[in-house]
Structures are given as structure tokens and as C-alpha cells.
Amino acid sequence: MSKKVVSSHQPRPPHMVGDGLPVRNLFSYNDLGKSQLSPFLMLDYGSPSEFPPTEKKLGVGMHPHRGFETVTLVLQGGLQHKDTAGNFGEIGPGDVQWMTAGKGVLHEELHSESFRKTGGTLQMVQLWVNLPADKKMTEPRYQTLHAADIPVIVGADGASKTRVISGKLGDVSGPAKTFTPVNLIDIEFTGKGRLSVVLPEGYTTALFVMEGAVTVNGTDTTDGISIMILERNGSKIEMAADGPARLLILNGKQIDEPVVGYGPFVMNSSEEIQQAMQDFSSGTFSTAQ
Ligand code: MN
């Protein structure tokens, strides 16, 4: 049975994260990410932006997170990550960083050194994935997933390339380790084409379309950069593109727990948020490891 489209949402106006990451927010834990899109909390999209070569370390400096995971996809350009758990990673086009903040980490997210030198186009996505209550205080973890390690499925008509970043699509598994079932699928239509996918029944499902337009089940067409939410019932999505298009399928098992977020902290209660702020200001985030 096909999944029906529930609603479609446009991004907010652009804002700058730090001094080098221009993004448009599609949803956050204060709106669709509160429960409707669980386990997904937030999505920021950095549409293609030009940067001249610079010596300056553009991006966002050391800042904390607790209680969830940040997933960063670079489509064009390059980013680098450094955190207080001792992790460092540089990612380029097609690469993904999957960082588990868990009990608390400080990190910086900057343009990569090689990108700073050459300048060029930066295009990126950052998705926040919630952790269940019993994993919110887990040890921080960091996964660099290089494009070469992410399996690609070429569409039967040759018009699409589908990458499984986490979870499964059919019998293809993605490399990212997750704490709850999350199928994160990256689809690029290189031209006019069609693609059907079958996803687990009952999971939260949304299509984030960043480029081009996609018609779902022959009836609903996306309008510009948008997030289209599908019902949890049903399992099949039929997509058609008239030309080049790029989208992510966010598919995951709902975490049925309260979501209380404040800035970079997402916990289950306001007491836990207070605790996070206390721990951050007393410096335990940077020494916890
Ligand atoms: Mn961050």
C-alpha cells in the first residue's frame, strides 16, 4: 500500500550559523520535530553558496550539545569537525559525519582547510536525530562516513542514484551505526526518471527535497525546497522527477518520549535541561572524557 502525503512545508528564511554556514531551517524540535517527525528533531539546509578563498576559519566555533546526534552531509565544498572527545574529521562532497553528542560534547564546525584555500561552492545539510531516554547520557561517538563507503543503488531506468547512509533499503545496508532504527536515504535524479522504494510500515517518513521537483504517488508534487511528510501507514513511495532532483528520505522508528529542547540541548524534561546548562557552565562537558 502506498504511503499518502500528509503535508508539505517550506523552509524559513535564511540565517547564518556562526560566520560561515548560511542555512534555511525546515523544521525544529519546537515544531514538526517535537513529535510528528520523531526521531528527527531538526533539519537545516545550506543551499549552494559561494565563498572566496580565505585564511579565516569560517564556520561555528566551540559549542556544546547533549542528548541527541548531529548528522552533517556535505554535497559540495568541505567541512571539518573537532570535538572535546578528541575526534577530528574533514568531509568533502558526498561524505557524512554522524556525531553522537550523548552526555555532552563541545565541537567546532568549520569550513575545511582545503576548502578555505580554494574557495568555491558550499552545499550542506545538518539533521538532528534524537536519542531515546536511556541513551541520552551515552558516551559521545563520532563516525566519519566517506562517500566511497556508502553503497549506491542505480535506478532501473538509469536516472537515479540512491545512497543508503544508515539503516536499510531492500537488502542494502548503510554504514552509519544508530541507536534506534533510522533509514537515511539520499536520492539523486540525474534526469527525468522514476523510482519506487519500500520502507518499513509504521515508521515516521518525510522527503526533504533540496533541488528540483518530485511527484509522489502520481498526485503530490513538491514545490521548491520543501519537506513533505507522509503517513506512517503503508510502505511504498513512488517518486517521479521531470529532471535533475536531489532529496533525502528521512525514515525512522518514532521515539515516543517527551522532547524538551533548549538551544543545543535536547532532553526529556526541563530539569534535565537545567542540569545540562549547569554541567556546561561548570565545564564538565569538556572534561567528561
Ligand atoms: Mn553543532
Structure in words:
The chain is mainly β and about 290 residues long. The chain is built from three helices and 26 strands. The strands form six sheets. Strands 1-22-19-24-17-14-13 form a seven-stranded antiparallel β-sheet, with no helix packed on it. A seven-stranded antiparallel β-sheet has the order 2-3-4-11-6-9-12. It has a four-stranded antiparallel β-sheet with strand order 5-10-7-8. A hairpin with a 2-residue loop joins strand 15 and strand 16. It is globular. The model has no long low-confidence stretch (mean pLDDT about 95). The site of manganese (II) ion has 5 residues, from strand 5 and strand 10. Manganese (II) ion binds next to strand 5 and strand 10.
Cα Rg? 18 Å
Report the β-strand fraction as a percent range. over 45%
- Largest sheet strand order: 1-22-19-24-17-14-13
Count the beta strands.
Answer: 26
Indicate the low-confidence ranges by residue numbers: none
The backbone outline, from C-alpha atoms, is: globular
Class derived from helix and strand content: mainly beta
Mean pLDDT: 96
Main sheet characteristics: 7 strands, antiparallel
